[in-house]
Design goal:
The chain is of the alpha/beta class and 365 residues long. The protein has 15 helices and 17 strands. A nine-stranded mixed beta sheet has the order 9-10-8-7-6-5-4-1-11, sandwiched between helices. The protein has a three-stranded antiparallel beta sheet with strand order 12-13-14, with no helix packed on it.
Length: 365
């Protein structure tokens, strides 16, 4: 049986953050009810035969903003329809203000085994400035409850935020690490078109953000965290996000819900971004065959593998695509020697390469 990852998009939030460009909607009971009817219909129509599910990820939006019964109904249907590995990683994204003991107990009982908190900052002034509706103390309460029920907890932080500096980020890191959280994600802020930050004219200080990223990497390394992907750090390998590794390894995954994406049987599939179309049953809006042995697949393999600390398996790549990558790219590799290395037959980014990863990958494709 082929391994499969499942992503379920829950597009509802209590408030829209000032940096958010994701497909999301403000919470209302009527919209939630109609959405979950459509979501269950989409899942029920999918053919899971021939697959074993190794991970399920509820993302958003804010999955924790809806009633836990909504989440559990979806999970129950997936369990009925699909063969799920006994070791499957099942994650739900939660915002601190919409997490509760009742939800923690329900999620745990249903088999969810990983909580990912959208923290972003521990500075209340910064949180307010970017439109977050929780405070650091609210996060502390939510984290305390989560630790009673879950041994695998992640927290997201953002760098490049308005009002952030090296001191405030260091405080963020010290606070999160002191809580015994095993996994931390650090994302660089991108001011997307149409967001409130963009309309306000906010621009990220790229030099400062690069310094913040470097400082975060050094601090977390000193605390025993391993950077296993450009934005992700874990205390031990067992706390790595197995779901995300499906993406980085170009494994099969199916996305259910508004604007969800899938990559399955070499097809890249995109769901509609229209709420009306989705609840009326018009889910898929684009389907593209990615020929498994041609240049597009090869470029995706390089791009995704270099995001990780494992890097690209050169021998496997050459055999699969009938290439000699090191010979083909010898000129580029010499020019990029400061950022790239070959180690144990793998092409990897050096420490200095992670922050400029996108520019490096473009030059290798």
């Amino acid at each position: 049986m082929k391994p499969l990852a499942i992503y379920v998009h829950i597009p509802f939030c209590k408030a829209r953050c000032y940096y958010c460009s994701f497909v999301s909607s403000l919470y209302s009971l009527d919209r939630v009810s109609k959405y979950f009817d459509a979501l269950l219909r989409e899942i029920d129509l999918f053919d899971f035969s021939g697959f074993v599910v190794n991970s399920i990820y509820f993302g958003g939006g804010t999955p924790s903003v809806v009633k836990q019964e909504n989440i559990l109904t979806v999970l129950d249907l997936i369990k009925k329809k699909a063969f799920i590995s006994a070791e499957a990683e099942i994650t739900i994204e939660c915002n601190p203000e919409s997490f509760s003991r009742e939800k923690a107990m329900s999620f745990k009982k249903a088999g969810i085994n990983r909580i990912s908190f959208g923290l972003q900052s521990t500075d209340d002034k910064i949180l307010k400035r970017i439109g977050r509706i929780h405070t650091y103390n609210v996060f502390l309460k939510a984290c305390s409850i989560a630790k009673e029920y879950f041994s695998n907890i992640s927290a997201d932080l953002i760098i490049g935020l308005p009002g952030q500096d090296k001191r405030s980020l260091k405080t963020d890191l010290e606070r999160v690490v002191s809580l015994g959280i095993e996994h931390i994600s650090i994302y660089g802020l991108k001011v997307e078109e149409g967001t409130l930050l963009q309309k306000e004219g906010y621009k990220v200080d790229e030099d400062l953000t690069a310094d913040l990223y470097s400082n975060a990497v050094d601090y977390l390394a000193g605390k025993g965290f391993i950077r296993y992907e450009v934005s992700n750090f874990s205390k031990e390998d067992k706390y790595r996000s197995r779901h995300n590794f499906t993406y980085w390894n170009r494994g099969d995954y199916v996305g259910f819900g508004l604007s969800a994406h899938s990559f399955i049987n070499n097809y890249r599939i995109e769901n509609t971004c229209s709420y009306i179309d989705y609840i009326e049953g018009e889910t898929e809006c684009k389907r593209l065959l990615i020929s498994p042995l041609e240049s597009e697949a090869a470029e995706e393999t390089i791009m995704l593998a270099l995001r990780t600390s494992d890097g690209l398996d050169i021998k496997s790549f050459n055999e699969k695509f009938n290439r000699d990558l090191l010979s083909e790219k010898s000129g580029q590799l010499k020019q990029l020697d400061k950022f790239l290395k070959v180690e144990d037959n793998r092409l990897k980014l050096k420490d200095d390469g992670f922050y400029v990863m996108n520019e490096i990958i473009v030059r290798l494709l």
